Structure formats: structure tokens, C-alpha cells
Amino acid sequence: MSTIRIGAHMATKGDVSTVPKRTTEIGGNVAQIFVKNPRSWKTGEIKEGMKEKLQAEMVKYDVPIFVHSGYLVNMATPEEELRKKVMHLISNEISMTIQLGLKYYNVHPGSHRGTGEKEGLERIVRTLSEVMSMFPNADLCILLESVSPKGGNIGYKWEHMKYIMDEVGDPRIGVTYDTCHGFDAGYDPRTPETLDMILNEIDKNVGLDKLHMIHLNDSMYPLGVAKDRHQNIGKGYIGMEGMKNLLSNPVIRSKSIVLETPEKALTHADDIKTIKRILKELELH
Ligand SMILES: [Zn+2]
Ligand SMILES: [Zn+2]
């Protein structure tokens, strides 16, 4: 059986090369990071020698790393001045991703801020096309993450992803399925039939080969409520049975599974333990 990749969003703690080791310490073998402060417009830079240091640690601990964009990135913003700032920020984050020798940059498509989905989609296509053209030869993959249908968000339907990918027309674009965000949008992964419907939907629109990451999060609110509140594995409305159903699916298991669950009462290490317990029950680990 091929390795099941499970891990979490990790803090870099000022030295990104510590992420692979710390990931193994919580029981993981894949990670997601921010390359810089996700709340700041200030650009960041990669220190000399960091790529080599990080890559050596990734090989040593066998931990691949995905990058998540910062919170200020909104490719659909209706204000042109702001869109230029966003372009500057994304290109900085992508260039830092490349400088670290990483390939996958996960981003929320964006919010149209009340101007309507059609216009929002057009601006995402324009922004993303411009961004991709700045890195013509890079071994890069942009992952459009499925989001909650709130605040003018685009990307809560797989049709949105298809539209963006078709219009930009760059093969270096893929998708991430966030189970909490999907649940917010009415995609129910709790039964084999409804999970198959979700995967068929992804396959029909963008192709399952374009699905590179699963953000495995439980949801604090019921199906379709769209609050975007992540919950620990098995502790929310997707619940233990829903998680079992997700993890018993071979397509889900073949992708990199990254947790973005809250670390309050429980930690990512606890959630990874829960997942491993489920896999054991399913006799898959
Ligand atoms: Zn996200
Ligand atoms: Zn997510």
C-alpha cells in the first residue's frame, strides 16, 4: 500500500527548516505553511542557504510541504489599486515558494465584495493569468481551494474552479478540497453515496488528477450553514462517522491530507492520532 500522507498546517516559528522535524513529532508526514506573516502587506524574503537547509530536512524526514497564501490575498477584489497590491503580494509569496524549492501554492479564489460572481470570476481570471505569466518557466502549481459560500466568496462550487482553470488555460493550476468549507456549501461527505457525488463533481469539472490536497477539517456548524468554523476531527457535524467515510475512500486517501483544525482543547497531534485510530479500525494503517 502506498504511504498515506497526513499532517497539519504548521507554524514556521522563524525557521521554516524546522517544519519537517516538528511535523514528524506530531505524527505527521506532510505539512502546510505560510511563507511569511499572513496578515501583513509587507513583502518577505528567503535567507541565503534556506532552500538547501529546508530541502535536506524534507528529504531526511520525508515530509513534503504545501504553501498557503496569506489572508490579504483577494484575486477578485473590485478595487483596481487594491488588486495591484494583491498582485504584488501574491507574486512575492510565489517567488518565496519557488525560492524554497516548493511547488504547491494554495489560494482562495477570492471575494467579489458584492459586485456579483460573474465580475468576480473575470477579475480572478485576469489576476491569475497575470500572475502565471510572471513565472512562465517555474515548476509551480497553484491550488484553488474550495471555500465557504459567505462574504461574496467565489470557489464554493466546483463549476467556479472549472471556469477559472479553462479561462486561464495554464496546466499548472489544480484544486484543494476543504471538507469544512465544502460542508458549508452543502457538499455532504458523510455517506458513501454523497461523497461519491462530490468526487464525481470534482472529476467532471476539473478532473480528479487536479485534486492535490484535502484540507481535512470537521465543521462546528451543520450542513450548509456557511459559518466557516473548523472543528477537531470527529468533534463536529461531519463527525466520527463522516470522518470514517472520508478516510475509507481510496481517492481521498491517495491525496495529501492536511488538518487546519483548532488547537484549543485538542492539538493537531491529537487529531492525527484520531485519524490513525480510524485508519487502524479500517485496517488501512
Ligand atoms: Zn484556506
Ligand atoms: Zn482550508
Give the structure's gist in a few sentences.
The protein has helices at 19-25, 50-61, 80-99, 117-133, 158-168, 179-184, 192-205, 239-247, 250-253, 268-281; strands at residues 6-9, 30-33, 65-68, 104-107, 110-111, 141-145, 153-154, 173-178, 211-215, 218-219, 230-231, 256-259.
Structure in words:
It is globular, with a radius of gyration of 18 Å. The longest helix is centred in the N-terminal third of the chain and has 20 residues, at 80-99. The mean pLDDT is 97. Helix 1 runs parallel beside helix 2 (50-61) and helix 4 (117-133) crosses helix 5. With 285 residues, the chain is an alpha/beta fold. The chain has helices at residues 19-25, 50-61, 80-99, 117-133, 158-168, 179-184, 192-205, 239-247, 250-253, 268-281, and strands at 6-9, 30-33, 65-68, 104-107, 110-111, 141-145, 153-154, 173-178, 211-215, 218-219, 230-231, 256-259. It has one domain: Alpha-Beta Barrel (TIM Barrel). The strands form three sheets. The protein has an eight-stranded parallel β-barrel with strand order 1-2-3-4-6-8-9-12. A two-stranded antiparallel sheet has the order 5-7. It contains ten helices and twelve strands. The chain binds zinc ion (ZN) (2 copies). Residues 145, 178, 215, 260 line the site of one zinc ion.
